[in-house]
Specification:
homodimer; Aminopeptidase; Alpha-Beta Plaits; 2 domains; five-stranded antiparallel β-sheet; disordered N terminus
Chain lengths: 431, 431
């Protein structure tokens, strides 16, 4: 273990945490909707936060670039310019009416880790470690605008799918068009891809987005895996009829079918231990107060720790939908818009994160909690090109994707310490 | 009974019905959405159909005007210029993705009745009856644009409510603003009101918007009353949470509450004989695939033959909503946006419509069916200033508020005959 693997001065950590909190506030003001936080892929707000992030990257000595998919990158070279890079990152995009920490806090903590670890040289800075340090601020993790999540990290992973170009946002703008309007060249998206042989791994700090650490009274956790997820857009077709004149025995009400379906998802998933299903969107068409809905569309987000369990639950839901829609004279179909296998965090990276967390605990404390992430993360895409490790921060009451989303400055300070110590532990491992 | 109360020549009736069908097709092409029929209050399409209707009114010898609420009126004076007027009418606005007959066919049939009954004089025409004839093409019956039905006929009835000015359409345009953009003066809407002492009554022909006549194999029916209706906009509030990270025991999912509510409406109304409840609109907020909905909004349309029964069912629904939302940790509230008492058709007008239908039947046929209208009609507003009578036409399979809405040309020919004979019977009644 190298000599400098010691605790960082508490005042430096507290200052770093305060800066992270202030910058979360600053980024929260970059929003498409005043009074709410809304920052989606390839929007003017995306361009503005990339410029801010680039400025902050340069402030800690990194060279910066925006990649071909709109991700903002900063790099601090190692003494050996041919060294591979350890990626640290998270995302800067948000859901609608978001909180201010999901993703954002991980990017800002990574910058503080770089600030703590860098060493001055020739009026600039280098990574003192056997690898370069990169901070990646991913441009689209949530999938808010185009319904497809992990667009930014998929580009970095080289797993971009050309079918996505025709995805449209709520205004009918295609992903291709949005690229052009943002000033990106769709034909060059492949240039964002990174080669596995130039990477050491990927580490991400993130709020838990769940109540486990809060319930246990712990600040930090090692993440064991990122949940297996599938997303569907479902459509139910019946027949639009006059609301007054159509007796119940002649109705084929698509909205009632969809309502039963939403409740069936809840009932089936509740009966399982580690499966969560959510209907977040539902709309009836034509959507008039005096017309029996002839069509309903809704989304289904399904997550589990293991792929097989998740798929078995989807099969059970599909059987229920057959029964419900058959009984009501409705047709239904599902289009799968997202399918991500569970990603196991690399054992080595779990170990170094555990060591990092241990450095923040009193001697003799219990081992840090190890939990799996029900939420999806950029690591799901990045896991196809390099090892992934994640550090979770306590998220009071588990509230996320909501303006009340929170994290405490003391937990952020502990998180920065653990994150930086993890990187040092990784540097101390035999290559 | 006057000498000319005889059947009209069948070829004149067939020609009239063909013209009505052709004009329904022509009006169907006046739409805001190509390939669908969509014509809402105070839209450019509204102005275009008013111009067409005015042209057709003048063609049968009527003088025309557009009133202060955008209704298109035609008048054929009686020999006695001080005579009261019999109003014949229906509406020209539509729901979204409408059929081509609801409302429209009644306006066009009224014009054919005028054409059959008018008598030439001095190079023009007059009503040969002891009353003037007016055709009213109401501008807003459906309430599609502002959520409030019967705006056109409410203006004629003098029951305009100044609170409506602030109603907004989906684009945020207020009713007041829409009046101005259409070229109408909100301050003068009161001028559209008619005085009871200048009116004989109001007769309307309309497709049934239900399956009764189709099931019975009959072309025409006397309407006994227009259903009692209430409409509500309901809001359910829970808490928006991250879809993956929030376990079921911490969720307060507003959409699941609304889904249960929609199913409760169906269950409670189905257990009643003459009550129909419909949830036509439902939406979840913030409406993202990966957020547990913190809010849901939905509409409820409730109709019955009698006000008391309808209100008792609403009370039962409200009790169910208390239980559902209480159990799920949700809050709910309802805003009543429409409340129309049942309107009984005047016995005299029911009688003359029955006589009119009898004139179309073989001697010795059963008495014409008498049914109540579950759908709302302009007569609900007009009933406050004059007697109302209605004639229903068979509506194959009861399909209405849908592109497949239909009526047959032979039924329209019979309807025109019955309608014209009804007017003659009314003229023959002692004043």
């Amino acid at each position: 273990m190298p000599a400098r693997l010691t605790s960082f001065p508490p005042d430096r950590l507290a200052t770093a945490a305060r800066r992270v909190m202030a910058r979360c506030d600053e980024l929260a003001r970059v929003t498409a909707t005043t009074g709410k936080i809304e920052r989606v892929y390839l929007s003017p707000e995306h361009a503005r936060v990339n410029r801010l992030a680039a400025e902050w990257m340069r402030e800690v000595g990194m060279t910066t670039r925006q990649d071909a998919a709109g991700n903002q990158l900063g790099r601090l070279e190692a003494a050996d310019a041919a060294a591979r890079a350890l990626l640290l990152g998270s995302h800067l995009d948000t859901v609608l009416d978001a909180g201010r920490f999901d993703g954002i806090v991980g990017v800002l903590m990574a910058l503080e880790v770089v600030r703590l670890l860098r060493e001055p040289v020739d009026g600039g800075f280098v990574s003192p470690l056997p690898f370069a340090l990169e901070v990646l601020a991913f441009s689209d993790e949530e999938g808010t605008r185009f319904g497809k999540a992990l667009l930014g990290s998929s580009a970095v992973a080289g797993s971009w799918n050309d079918e996505w170009w025709s995805l449209e946002d709520a205004d009918g703008t295609s992903l291709r068009q949005a690229f052009l309007e943002f000033g990106l060249d769709p034909a060059r998206v492949g240039e964002a891809a990174r080669r596995p042989d130039e990477l050491v791994g990927y580490l991400e700090a993130h709020i838990e987005q769940g109540p486990e650490l809060h319930r246990r009274g712990e600040s930090l956790a090692v993440v064991s895996s990122i949940a297996s997820a599938r997303r569907f857009q479902l459509q139910v077709e019946g027949e639009a009829r006059h609301a007054g004149g159509t007796p119940y025995d002649m109705r084929r009400d698509a909205l009632l079918g969809a309502s039963e379906a939403a409740l069936a998802v809840e009932r089936i998933c509740r009966s399982e231990h580690h499966i969560i299903g959510t209907v977040g969107q539902l709309e009836a068409f034509p959507g008039a107060v005096n017309i029996v809905p002839g069509e309903a569309r809704f989304s289904l987000d399904l997550r589990g720790e293991f792929d097989g369990e998740r798929d078995r639950v989807w099969d059970a839901i599909a059987r229920d939908l057959d029964e419900i829609m058959g009984r009501r004279g409705l047709r239904w179909r599902a289009r799968e818009v997202h399918n991500a296998a569970a990603v196991m965090c690399a054992p080595l990276l779990q170990d170094v994160i555990r060591e990092g967390i241990v450095s923040t605990l009193p001697r003799g404390a219990d081992a840090p909690p190890v939990i799996f992430s029900r939420a999806g993360h950029d690591g799901m895409a990045i896991g196809s090109i390099t090892d992934v490790g994640m550090l979770f921060l306590r998220n009071p009451d588990g509230i996320s994707h909501h303006p009340d989303e929170a994290v405490s400055a003391p937990d952020v300070a502990l998180g920065i310490q653990a994150f930086a110590e993890s990187v040092l532990h990784l540097a101390a491992e035999p290559a």
